[in-house]
């Protein structure tokens, strides 16, 4: 909606600019919006902190720095998931539009785009979930001083969520 509004509002008639605003710009905007919405929804985790554990699995305390790291990692994996899911179908459709087969059957483009998007999304879910470990390790020295004082372990663990 934002690229369309900008094109209308500023009267952008150049075909190259229109191609950029219709094809290229929405992908990073959509990925960024997905990451931003995750930050908003999970803001409590980096404001109040998340539970960190020692090597034996005992709770040590609540860490805001671990919470921010967890939310950032999850937002990054979400942006990769959404970004890839939108880029691959667009690239495939751009390629297929040039083939004689599709030029003779242009009604196939919409179903191919949807099928490709569903397939890429399904394949990217395990990839995006595995970008960062769910039970992540963080050095004790990178956390708050209160947490550092509670344990002698050099590394602590936290669950980053999905």
TrEMBL record:
Topology of this chain in the membrane: Multi-pass membrane protein
One Gene Ontology term from the biological process aspect of the record: mitochondrial transmembrane transport
Transmembrane parts of this sequence: 20-41, 107-132
Organism domain of life: Eukaryota
InterPro entries linked: Mtc
An example Gene Ontology CC term for this record: mitochondrial inner membrane
Subcellular location: Mitochondrion membrane
GO MF annotations, alphabetized: monoatomic ion transmembrane transporter activity
Keywords assigned: Amino-acid transport, Membrane, Mitochondrion, Transmembrane, Transmembrane helix, Transport
Record family assignment: Belongs to the sideroflexin family.
Descriptive protein name: SFXN4 protein
Organism annotation: Atractosteus spatula
């Amino acid at each position: 909606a934002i690229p369309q509004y900008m094109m209308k509002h500023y009267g952008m008639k150049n075909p190259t600019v229109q191609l950029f605003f219709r094809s290229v710009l929405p992908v990073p905007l959509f990925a960024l919006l997905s990451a931003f919405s995750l930050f908003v929804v999970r803001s409590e985790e980096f404001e109040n902190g998340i539970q960190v554990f020692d090597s034996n699995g005992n709770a040590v305390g609540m860490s805001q720095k671990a919470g921010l790291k967890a939310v950032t990692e999850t937002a990054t994996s979400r942006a990769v998931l959404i970004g890839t899911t939108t880029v691959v179908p667009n690239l495939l459709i751009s390629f297929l539009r040039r083939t004689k087969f599709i030029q003779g059957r242009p009604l196939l483009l919409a179903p191919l785009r949807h099928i490709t998007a569903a397939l890429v999304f399904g394949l990217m879910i395990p990839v995006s979930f595995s970008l960062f470990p769910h039970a992540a390790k963080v050095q004790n020295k990178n956390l708050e001083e209160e947490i550092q004082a509670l344990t002698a372990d050099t590394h602590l663990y936290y669950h980053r969520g999905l």
